[in-house]
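Researcher: Good morning. I'm working through a list of sequences from a screen, and I'd like to move beyond sequence-only analysis. For each chain I'm collecting a predicted structure so we can compare shapes side by side. This is the next one on the list. No need for commentary yet; just the structure.
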Amino acid sequence: MLKQRTVLGLVAGMLLSQSGLVAAEALSREAVEAWLKSSPAELPVAGTVIGQDGKEALRPLMPPGFFEGVISPDMQITIEATGDYQPPQVYKDATAANAGKTVLKADGGVDNYTAGVPFDPERFDDVSPAEAGMMLAWDHVYRWQYYGYRLKTLDMVYVQPTADGKPGSTRAGGMEGGGTAERSLVQDYHRVYLNHLAMLPQQNYKVNGLDSDTRYFKDLIAFVEPFDVAGTTFVVERALEANEEDQVNSYLPSQRRVRRLSAKERSDNFMGSNYTLDDFEGFSGRVMDYEWTYLGQKTVLHVSNSREPTMRFGGANSNVAIDQWQVRPCFVVELKPRWEGHPMSAKFLLIDQQTFTPTMALMLDRKNELWRVLLTHYQRPVVDNSTPERALETSVSKWRGSIAYDVKANTTTIARATAPTEFPTMTEKEIKRTFSLSRLTEGR
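Model: Good morning. Structure tokens for this chain:
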């Protein structure tokens, strides 16, 4: 159980120095646990615009470290009505057809899962916290995502603080607040799912052929800018067998060869950023790499339906979304790495109760102090019912951006989509052509 303690005294004492905003003292595990147990006196009402005078009321709804460290006095938080984001009927049908069939194995894996939501959240309070944690993990992994999404251009900007939170000499990636852009990368990203596809009951819920009997999804990450990383490409293949390691192949033009990444390299800073391959969107989906503990529920503020065509960021280090925020009820789960050499001791992951998308993650270092805060930002599509395919392509919450804030170093990596987020219908031929390992050396 989480200890009930006041968080205000533990997280106070943030001060402004000539090197930017820095933490006067580290935030302990107890401070994070206290925040997870905290709740506001009342929830903000839709249509409210909250400025400096009312900001303190938002403390229980925004993660510690982030709340104190990046929300500058001139920031305003706009509250919109909480949206109702139901999955399409095909996903509901798959859930109903397979209800009660999925079995949680002793090691935390699953047996007899086909499609839809694996575990009814109503069961979380009827089993042990460890079992409920694993159930929530699989509900998150197998949430509705159609064939997966494609982003033709995605910016990743490394932001360093500047004195008094003022803008630096270099600006990039939607920066409208303080900080300076130390480096900016542009990438092309595409994920495709091959199995457990709710819209394909006539094909046993999977694509025909390819690797669908052994692979759950494939990722393609290709860097196109700047010149010194252009052509660097990664293909990540996730196995259906939960205990099997990912196959991660990378091509670095400078080495002119394809090489396999080890499991330990997944916890390294990805391309020098504040992200790793294991925490994009808060969690990579490798359930068996962690011990899970369900901690209950918490309501937070989250950008669930961005109003911006391309995301904008303000605040002390240009890492607070200038957008509309929703009050979203979330499940809370703690992940502890099973690899003793992992730089993280624990991660608290908050998952939207309706969409099962991650809203935020709070990571602790090996000292059990708050290390990084990750926030994800989404946008709801305009539904297009012109064809059955278009209806499904416009039924999924679209990732539009995220921030990875290093609380201790006071640095941020901003990631944001600069092209439309698409959920394209994929044929077997298109999947094979797009994700073939032989194309790694061809350039993108």
